[in-house]
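Appendix B.2, paired examples.
Example (i):
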Amino acid sequence: MRSSIHEVIITLSEAAALVLLVVFVFLQSWRATLIPIIAVPVSLIGAFGGLMLFGFTLNTLTLFAIVLATGIVVDDAIVVLENVERLMAEKKLSPKQAAIESMREVTGAIIAIELVLVSVFVPVAFLGGLAGKLYQQFAVTVATAVTISGLVALTLTPAMCALLLKPQHIENRLFRPFNRGFAWITRTYLGGVRLTVRHAVIAVLIFVAILGTDALLFRIVPSGFVPSEDQGYLLGSLTLPDAATLQRTQEAGAMVQRVVLEHPAVEHVFVVSGLDVIAGANKTNAATIFIPLKPWDDRKTNAEEMAKYVIAQGAKLSQATLLAFNPASIRGLGSAGGFEVYLQDRADADPQKLYQNLQPFLDALRKRQELTGIASFYRPTSPQLYVDVDREKTAALGVPLQDVFDALQSTMGVLYVNDFNKFGHTYRVQLQAEGAYRSKPEDLGNIYVRSAGGDMIPVKALISVKSAIGPEQLDRFNGFLAAKVLGNSAPGVSSGQAIAAVEDVAKSLPPGYTIAWTGQAFQEKRIGTAAILAFVFAIVMVFLILSANYERWSLPAAVLLAVPFGLLGALTAVFLRDFSNDVYFQIGLLVLIGLAAKNAILIVEFAAQEQAKGLSPVDAALEAARLRFRPIVMTSLAFVLGVVPLVLASGAGAAARRSMGTGVFGGMLVATFVATIFIPLFFVLLTRGRAKPAAAPAGIEERIA
């Protein structure tokens, strides 16, 4: 955990540096760059206060939120600052006058953006279950940071613009190529906007195709819960034949320890004989092996490759089975990574019949190419001694039946007597014979019990012993006799595809037998509903908030139509990198909903203002696109480059960072450079006829061109 948090802090530093670089390149003034940069620490400190207020800790997920918030909180200050500089350049206003005029123009947009970003996360904060807890921590962190950044943009940022900015900005020769290149990009963008407005039917058909592509990608991209993480250690399970002695188990464990320690990536090997951590029981023929690996920077082998190496070494053992597991990505969700499923006997609860049906089920699972590492430790074949007490004879001799059972338990097992307190501690009193007197079957009954008449009766005279076989341990899941099955997905196969493969095999189970998921697989089955609810609530809340803000439905609809473009970019990015649709990716989609809507709001808000001045919807949309393209690109690039360290993450917790960062990175690129071409068209289509057409002010076509 410490290594993972350390890696996230490094990522946060890299993200802040990239955001600073983007702001400086676009603003080309250290004075101007200083203004939005001040907003970052103020907002992030406020986010920490929100975590304390809601009782959340500083963990990997909340630090992910801080990384993303670094690129988000700077947006509002950039919007204000860019508009102030534009007014000083175009209208020759002083910094103070430009700051006042800028706030008249952008206050509505900033308030709408803050409401949208907060409304996206507020509903998911009330979701239940494990997925809800993950969403809540992220939502609280981002929502708090965004709220404070909005207050800073409305108060501190314009004041600093009035104090720090200079009326005239002289272009530096170093930035001349960048300015020319961005001017060309702007002209190309405006040409694309005019093209979509003129050919509205074709543009709408393209948008419909994008919706269809989104639906197709949702079906193609495999589902998952959380990505498998290299946590710096492995769990091993060593199993010997039934009834193997503890001494044999210790010898096999020592052999495994010597072999595994030879690998250069292994730091230590710790063997606990007599403990089966997978089954959660004490067994003489089982051992649990803990394999801490060397730090991530000191080894080239990851945890998954190391687990394959350990299993390959275990295959060389003649009388033992050795398995190695990557621990569950979230502690408490199962004993090992991969999936855990129970085969339940709901018919007659017969351990032998359960075992007979378990073997074909395991064989069928091993034949599926999507699955690997299939194993089960349920074996009802352990040699046992069946002790039968002759109740009639016991009663005839006047021996209490309970005394016979207590004598057997205190001799061969452990008999609890009572507790007593001494020196401030509570101690348990238990009876148990010394090992030398309970090591052989002949020791059974070598003890006496007292009859009602005071005679001492040997227990051997009251019992009969015979050999038998049966299960060493019986598991019940949801009240039914069950056998746990462990497995993992094959390389390149998501956990969702592995779950589907197991369920497909389970269809051929005989009547009375079924499967029940537990651990990560159970949570993954549940999270599908939670994710759908989160997205629906987010869309509905954004629409309602914007409808209340604009007092009409058309402008919110134009804003929300930008969301499918973000989804297209996110799904395409994870598809190209062979990632899955997991929890972290879904959290990133929530961020995309808010950020895609933010870009659309900047255009729609200014288009509505221009339309209110008397421009036609087409001219208003074109003018808004010209005015808002630069701040949109600035804010989006600041966020996108801030996410790059997540996309290229390595080390502890890298899988989660890559999953979240990849989707957000791809989604924002498409939402910035593709969706903004269509947003003016949506505004025109949804507001046509709402304002009186008026002639465009002189020179508007020249400014757009």
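Example (ii):
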Amino acid sequence: MITRPLILLTCTLSLACAEEILQLDKIAVEESYSVIEERKDNSIAKRIIKGEELNQYGDMNALEMLKRTPGVTISDGKGKKGAPGKGYTIVLIDGEEVTPTKRGNPLEQINPDMIERIEVMTNGSAEYTAESMGGIVNIVLKKPSSNTKTTAKLTAGAYSGKPMSSLFAQHEGKNGNLSYMINATLSDNNQDDSSSIDTDAYHENGDTEGEFRALGLSTKLIFTPTSKDKYMYDGTINRSDDHKESVKNRYGTPTETIHQNDDGDALMLWNKFSGSHNLSGTELLEWKLKYHQNDSDGLTLSNDGTTNRKQRDESTLRILGAEGSYSLALDEHFIKTGIDLKQLHQSDDVTNFVNGVQSSDDHQSLRENKGAWYVQDEISIGEKAVLTPGIRFERSVLQFDQSAAIDYFAPSLHALYKLSENDNLRASVAKTVRLPRLDELSVSRDSSLYQNDFSHPDTIGNPNLKEEKALSYEVRYEHFFEDKGIVSLGGFYRDISDKIEKMTTFESERYVQRPYNSGQGKLWSLELELKKSLDTYVSGLGVFANGTFQDSSLVSNGVKRTIKGTSDYLYNVGIDHTLKEYRLTYGAAYRYVGGYDDPVDENGVSESQEGYGTLDLYATKRLDSTFKMGLNLKNITHESIVTTTKGYGTTQVDRENSRSYFLVTLDGRW
């Protein structure tokens, strides 16, 4: 019998015990028992990746780690900072939605050593947010262990001769009924990249040097006064600042040198207080109170030798929320119902000056009140099948220059059929939405100053933006090897209404980018995944691979085209080998993102991007029971992203060049 109550009561314990016993130094497919079993038995299709499988490649934060995660696309190129899924995929940290601001992304503040695992769902269930267009990524952070221990990791390296360094330290343990974990991350990294732009009128070479510094403090407390009650507190504060200096030498019409300095800082504060109560052997009550705040401000200076431009920007995002849920195990059913209340407030201030004289002053304040109710049932049918129907109702009230209320139902159905002990067949259908973000509604203009072109447009929101809706279908086959490996083949189809896309127009001699509801879209995708130990053939050898192949279409104003910026395919492949007698593990990972070729849109603009690949190598050596050393060689292929844009009588070719770099780590556990 497949029973969720058993999983509910034992899953946390088994995962904690497994973590105490196993100290994974590599992918170690054959040792990931708890993860594989959880994935096999979960009624909702999830790809679960242990943190140890990803952080060995020297990624500096969670945003970089996501690039290796199956089914997740990260936007790169044309100055894009990187956001999962091009506006599709929603990212959660311990179930909390990540809301980036202009100068701060919470994912960049998460040290890889803090991550327990990453869960990826193509279709979310009713207990998750309905705003899961393109799926859900949930980053689960580590919790305190029962044993007292201290870990520390020192990383040092160089990017094109510029120093990079970070220090992570963590202490955890248990005192009576209180388990605790405290960690700190300090980083100071430098970067030096080059770029070029070619148009019909000029050629431009650019060089950008940047320094990024951050300090993060985090704590987790778990108080268990009785066997039936548990209270938890999660608190995080991160302060980051960055400084960028760029020099652009432009030859042609006109010929000039542009200097630009950009200074910014961001403060992220997360607080969450939660509790769970076993009312009986079959009833569970859970609740959560949370307060999040992201503040950022910056100053951008630009001049070409004759004109000085200055822009000040300030942004504040505050989120206050409460959640509650009730779960009941009843015969073959596991029923869960809950409510979610949230209030978001965002304010943006942008002021521009030309030669010391104020030229514009934009102030925008937006508020959103959200409420949700859901009910979900896991129904065990015999020994082999589980059905998980659910429905979620959400209401969002937006308040800015004009007020708008949005109501929507989001039904979902997931099915699991166990073909055999090691073979699963899954299917799901879900209705999802994507509400416009508050910054996408704001009319505050973020000026690109001198660098105003297709790659550096002024950006502004669209207060008339409507929600995007989709109906998503998924089918997946999974086979679990006896050595704890896995191979899966799946596909999904998504029917999208009022697709939100960013488009660039030419207004008053300036390039301006806004989000629009562009039309009705469709997206098809095929996903492959393999994780396998080859120890039978070569002792200590393991491989992994995942790939996504996709196609899309969109009908906008009667014209059919592809969805903007959708790559034809992307894949990750890697290999790991352990020499046990030398306590040495080494491996390689290659990531390739296919290009795209967007036809002319309704504004007369087309864009294409060439595919690019990145190769990383690593080696780790355990010195003794306490210390381990590592070496990472990153971006050996010197990743270069080339984007060509045509429109308004201009052809522009952007080339963003990056360089390889290395990192050396010393990891200790006491």
